[in-house]
Amino acid sequence: MSGLNLGQSTRCGSVFVWVGQGAMREKRQHYQSFQLNNTIYSVDDTVYLYPEDESYPHYIGRIVSAFVDEEATGDGRDPHCIEVKWYERRVNLEASTRGIEESEREVFELEETDVNPIGCISGKNYVIKARGYDEAAGRMRDADQDWYFCRGYFLQKQNAFQAYTDNELEAPSNQTLPPLLSSLLPPHSTYMPEYLPDLQLPAPVHSGPASGGAPASAPAPGSQGTKRKAQGSGHACVECGASSTPQWRE
Predict the structure, then answer these.
(1) Tens digit of pLDDT for each residue in 151-209?
(2) Percentage helix, strand, coil for the chain under 3-state DSSP, each rounded to 5
(3) CA distance linking residue 54 with residue 51, whole number of Å
(4) DSSP-H helix ranges across the chain
(5) Which of 128, 127, 130 is nearest to 151 (CA)?
(6) What dihedral angle (degrees, nearest 10) is formed by the CA atoms of 141, 147, 150, 156?
(7) Is the pTM higher than 0.85?
């Protein structure tokens, strides 16, 4: 299949189509791009994903691959999937930093990936690798989209931070700049993932915690980190009731 594979609309106007020619690998038809709700997404783009509990902030992840899982069709699972590399928000790890611009913008790259239906995507954002907030803000000062900066990895098993190498920081990004999505910037939440105590994070890039900020709650001893999952069958449409990625491909 090549070119834009045109789709149809539901009553609420949602549209999903694969863009470009697919390539079969390990019983999966992989694509480089797709269109969902009038937005084009590509591999390496960073996105918001609906959480299972909608009182939580939207998850942030990078699309590692996008594919049709031929084996899912027979057992009722949504075959239209993305593999996502997760990021964790700093404010989820340190509740006392909520409400501070620099910390609200900071995320840490996690080691894990998960496969989720394409319908779990709620919008685009942009994650920039940078040594600090000022560097990221300077590079994104004219950008009209939600953005975050990342200084390195949060290693959940070791409960420690690992900074990006200079090569990783200087490597070109394949992300496509998204449109303005300020309306999707998730609200603050009391959600705290269950990581090991005594987090070994780099020093915040601000001068101190937010005034009146609540301390982070102590995680359960021995916890190895919570493996997250976006809302399993996609976000239910409030108008048409659809709860899975639409399959409108000829």
Answers:
(1) 999 998 899 999 999 999 998 887 776 444 333 333 333 333 443 345 566 665 543 33
(2) 15, 35, 55
(3) 6
(4) 90-93, 101-104, 133-139, 166-170
(5) 130
(6) 160
(7) no
